[in-house]
Amino acid sequence: MSFFIDNWILIAVAFVSGAMLVWPAVSGGGGLGSLKPTEAVMLMNREKAVVVDVCEPAEYAAGHVTGAKNVPLSELEAKLPATVKNKATPVILVCASGMRSNRALAIARKLGYEKVHSLAGGMGAWRSASLPVEKS
């Protein structure tokens, strides 16, 4: 018991730092530039955001956000400027789980896109929210 009393500051620091590490996972994760599916829909409707699916063509054909353009992650740096010409246009990047779209987010920002976002949870979250999926 005296250990806790003598070292209460260290224990408090350890607790706070642990809480800060766990918070992103508890709060829904994502991070900077990630959108929940409902936020993505609002951005698409209000600001005419362009949806870019960074999955491979076979995954894209199996199901994608309605109206999304397919630009595989491996070709994104070369093809995104031709797909979305205005760099001030909002862009929503989507993949199956949200991992590739987070990598694509870094590439798009490097290319100078100002309003680029990643769909948190990817197509899994999109389907879970019962939003429309298109197959090609």
Kindly describe this structure.
Strand 5, helix 6 and strand 6 (116-119) form a beta-alpha-beta unit. The strands form two sheets. The protein has a five-stranded parallel beta sheet with strand order 1-6-5-2-4. It is an alpha/beta fold and 136 residues long. The chain has helices spanning 2-6, 8-26, 37-47, 57-62, 76-83, 99-110, 122-128; strands spanning 34-35, 50-53, 64-65, 69-70, 91-94, 116-119, 133-134.
What key phrases describe this protein's structure?
two-stranded antiparallel sheet; alpha/beta; 5-stranded parallel sheet; single chain; 7 helices; 136 residues
Structural class by helix and strand composition: alpha/beta
Q: Count of DSSP helices? A: 7
Radius of gyration: 19 Å
The strand count comes to 7
Strand content: 5-15%
The ordered H/E elements are: HHEHEHEEHEHEHE
What is the 3D form?
A: elongated
Give the proportion of residues in helices: 40-55%
Segments where pLDDT lies below 50 for 5+ residues?
Answer: none
Provide mean pLDDT, rounded: 89
Largest sheet: 5 strands, parallel
* First-to-last CA distance: 66 Å
Strand order of the largest sheet: 1-6-5-2-4
Topology:
Blueprint: H1 2-6, H2 8-26, E1 34-35, H3 37-47, E2 50-53, H4 57-62, E3 64-65, E4 69-70, H5 76-83, E5 91-94, H6 99-110, E6 116-119, H7 122-128, E7 133-134
Parallel strand pairs: 1-6, 2-4, 2-5, 5-6
Antiparallel strand pairs: 3-7
